[in-house]
Every structure is written in C-alpha cells, then in structure tokens.
Amino acid sequence: MTKPLSKSHLLASKVMYAAMSILRDGGKTMKAADILEAIPAHVPLDAWALEEIESNGSPRWRMYVQFFSVDAVKSGYLLKSKGVWSLTLTGEEALALGANGFFSKAREGYRIWKKEQINTSKSSGKEKSDDGNVVQEPPEEQFERLRKDVNSTLVAEILERIKTNSWQFFERLVVELLLAMGYGGTGGQGLALQQGSDGGVDGFIHQDKLGLDIIYLQAKRWTNQTVGRPDIQQFVGALAGRQANRGVFITTSKFSQEAREYVKALQVRVILMDGERLAQLMIEHGVGVSIWKSYELKRIDSDFFSEE
Length: 308
Known about the structure:
By secondary structure, the protein is α/β, with parallel strands linked by helices. The chain has 2 domains: 7-103, Orthogonal Bundle (Arc Repressor Mutant, subunit A); 135-308, Trna Endonuclease, Chain: A, domain 1 (3-Layer(aba) Sandwich), CATH 3.40.1350.10. It has helices at 7-25, 32-38, 47-50, 60-74, 89-94, 98-125, 139-164, 167-180, 229-241, 257-264, 275-284, and strands at 29-31, 78-81, 84-87, 191-195, 201-206, 214-220, 246-251, 269-273. Strand 5 (201-206) and strand 6 form a beta hairpin. The relative contact order is 0.08. Pfam families: Mrr_cat, Mrr_N. InterPro entries: Mrr-like_N_dom, Restrct_endonuc-II-like, Restrct_endonuc_IV_Mrr, tRNA_endonuc-like_dom_sf, Type_IV_Methyl-Rstrct_Enzyme. GO terms for molecular function: DNA binding; restriction endodeoxyribonuclease activity.
C-alpha cells in the first residue's frame, strides 16, 4: 500500500506536475520564468501555498517548484541551462504516471543519485596496504571520513539548490555567508550589493567593523560556464579603477587553470571562491544547513581507573 503524501509533498507534487505539463504542452523547451508564471492558472493555490517564505522571499508553491525540480533533473526527466528548461523523453513518459506517481518516481531518482554520490565518496576514501588488503582505520579516522563523505554529498546538494533559485536568492545567500564569516560590519551595514549584468552580484564589503578596509566583490551564479582568465582580468581592471587592492570573486561553477595561475602573479590580492568552496563555507558557518544528528566519540578516562 502506497504511503499518502504529506501536505508539503502533496502541494509539491501538484505544482511540479503542472510545471512539467506546461513544459510539455509548450514545445518541451521553455524559459523557467514563463513556466512559473503559468502555474497559478493550472493549480488551485490556497493561502498556505501562497504564503511567502521568509528565508527566500518567494511564495511556498514557487519555492517547492524550484526545490523539487532538482529531483526531476537527477532522475533524467528535466534539463536546465541558463534559465531554460527542457523536458526529456523519459520525463514526458513519466508524466503518464500522474501527479503523485511522477513526484514519487522523481524523488526515487534523486535518492538513487544521492546514494551514488555517497558510494563514490566512500570508494575514493578507502586505503589499501601494499598487499592489496584494506587498511583498518582507527575509530576517530572512520568518523572523520564519514563526516567528509556526508559533507561531500551535501556540497553537491547545496550547489544544485543554489542553481535552481533566482539571483535575488543568490544575493541574500552571499550576504548571509559574508555576515556569518564576520565581514560587513555591524548589522551588515558595510555590505553594498547589486545585480550584475549577467545575473551575478557585484559590490563591496567592509573587512572590519569600522570600515577601514574595503574588499570588492563579484559573484557569478553560473551553472556550467567556467570562469576564465578574461573574466578575472576584467575584475582586476575594475579594482584598479577604484584604486582597490583586495577582491573576492565567487562563482557557483569553476575557475579555469589559467584563471588560477593568473591571480598568483598579481600585485593585488584576489581570492577565488568556486562552487565547491562556497558550499563548504556554507556548511562550516551554518548557512543554508542545519544539524541533523550529533554523535559523541568517547574514550577511556584513565584518571577514573587509576588507584593512586
């Protein structure tokens, strides 16, 4: 017997099915913004569904579409590229399952993908001795490896979630992370960000509470495009125009090797933060993540057992 969906998952199944149906009927390739705009005409939305979520400023139903569309991507039902969604043949076939069936199959596909990420991390972390046998790790090292495995999967999940959200969400994320890291001055008054021409974020932050040192910032919410040396050169030129000697370049994608080599020889200080490092810092500073479970690793208290 199939377990009934929760209230949240029931809404998610309806809006996701509507989104995929709109995409199918619209020629299988549409702008994500157009799909989202059309959904309210296809699904009855009550006050709870329309309630604005404080964390990202979007109504609940819209957040669910963005959040659970990742399941469709990982299941091979949906392709995303620069704000454009495309329905795959497998995705079109899955729509025949109905709203609940499509949602459940997409969730299952995401769980399979997540399990593969964990297995990949585990297999890459095992060490072997010279005779080919797996080396038995001390308990504390096993715990540390497990933590890294879990965080490795979490990094992939975080980046997927970021890429499905708007540039406004990305701006808030950058602000919250920088504040959590101690930048921006008291209450974030030293943060000045605005939308860049390519959907990124540009601005500056105060390195200290008094605002004595300023760091210029550029953030690119790119999906697949690699940030190359010309992008960094343009950023360095902008720093020179402001007579600045410090900058941070953030991207959700990656930097080319040429870009990384270029910053090493600069007179100014430029820090490159790629998608993986961005997600790692979010985990480290508790931005966009919460504690799921906590474990304690205990050892013998030698003082307790001493009779001296």
